[in-house]
Amino acid sequence: MTEGSAVVNLDDIKRAADLLAGQVVRTPVHQSGPLSELTGADLYLKLETLQHTGSFKDRGAFVKLSALSDEQKRNGVIAMSAGNHAQGVAYHAKRLGIPATIVMPEGTPFTKVARTQAHGARVMLHGDNINAAEPYAQEVAKAENLTFVHPYADPHIVAGQGTIALELLEDVPDLDTIVVPIGGGGVIAGIATAAKALNPRIQIIGVEAALYPSMYQIVHGMEPQMGGETIAEGIAVKTPGEINIEATRRLVDDILLVDEPALESAVQTMLETGKIITEGAGAAPLAAVLTHGGRFAGKKVALVVCGSNIDSRILAGILMRGMVRAHRLARIRVLIKDAPGVLAKVSDHIGQTGGNIVEVQHQRMFYDVSVKNAELDIMVETRDYDHVQAVLTRLNAAGFKSKLLSDLAE
Predict the structure, then answer these.
(1) Ordered structural domains, the chain, with CATH
(2) Residues 123-130: contacts with CB within 8 Å, 24+ apart?
(3) Going by fewer Cβ within 10 Å, which terminus of the chain is more open, N or C?
C-alpha cells in the first residue's frame, strides 16, 4: 500500500503473503465430513488455530512490525488486545527484537495473559473491554514514545489478515461462501478484499456475537447498542475500524448475529463432532451455519476458525452445560421416606435403568417436607431425554415421587 494510504487492495495482500512466507504457518484447509453431514453444507475449515500463537493474529502482527522503522523498533511497541492480537504482537516482537507492551482488559482469560507474558511482553490490565483499554494504551504510548499497533484499524494488519483468503482460494478455488467472524473488522476486510478480487461471485458472510453487533448496527444505520458477557470475547468490539467499515459496506454480502447458546453449542460441536478445539470467536462461523442452515445447505462453504485460545475453565463449563442441554446430565428430585436403606433402593433403581449417579444431595432441613421424609437431588448421567424419562418412570412406579428439575435443557 502507498505510504499514508488506508486503502488495501489485492496487490497489498499478495505482498503481505510474500513477506509472511516462512514466518507464519500456512494453515491447512480441512474438509469436515461429520460437520458437513450435520449442517447439510460442504464445510471446509480454515484452521488458523494452528498458528504458533493459536490464532490468525500472527499474520497481521508480523506484517505491521516488519513495516516499522529502525527507530520505532528500538523504542518498542504497545498494543491493546483481548488476547490473540496480544500474543501475535508479543511473539513476533520477541523474534524481531522489539520491546513489547500489551494492555489487556481486566477479566481477560488467564491463559491469554500467561501466554502473552511467556512471549516476553509487559502486560498491563485496564478496562472491561478492548475499546476501554485503547485510551490508556494510547496514553502509555505517548508517555513512553512507543509505536501503537492497533489490532484491526491498520492497513498493514488488514493486508496480513487478508492472506487467509489467498490460501483458501488456492486450496479450494470453487468455494461458494466464506464465513468470517467480525470484531473490529480487520480479518473480514482483508478476506473480502482478496476474495472478491479473485472471484467477484463468492459470498462473504460476517458473523458477530449478538451482544456486540457493532458492525451490523453501523452498516444498517442503527443506533449502537451493545454490551454484556460473551464467550466470544475476541470479537466483543464496540467500535470497528473505519477502514474496515468501508470495506464491509462495499464487499460483505451479509452479517449474521449469533446468541450465546448458539456460540456455546458451536464450541461443543466443533470439539465433539469436528474434533477441533476453538474459542468462542472461532466457533462463531459454525454457530451461524447451525443457526441459519437453510442459506448454506448444498453449498461449498469455508469457515474461518480464527482461534483456539479458550480458557480451560470456560471450555469445561461449556461442555458440561452442553451435556445438560442434551439431557446427558439430568437433575432429578426424589421424595423418600427418611429411613435406613431407602437411598440404596433409589440408587439401585437408577442403576437398573443404566443411569450413572454423579452427585447426591440429601436434604432434610430446608425443604418443605414432612419430618419423616427427605428429598434427594440427584445428578444422573444419561444418554438422552428418553433415557431421563425412563429413569423417572421407574422411580415413580416404585413409589418414589420423582421429577426432573428445571435446567438449561428446558
Answers:
(1) 1-325 (3.40.50.1100), 327-404 (3.30.70.260)
(2) 123/86, 127/103, 129/82, 129/105, 129/236, 129/237, 129/238, 130/80, 130/81, 130/82, 130/105, 130/184, 130/236, 130/237
(3) C
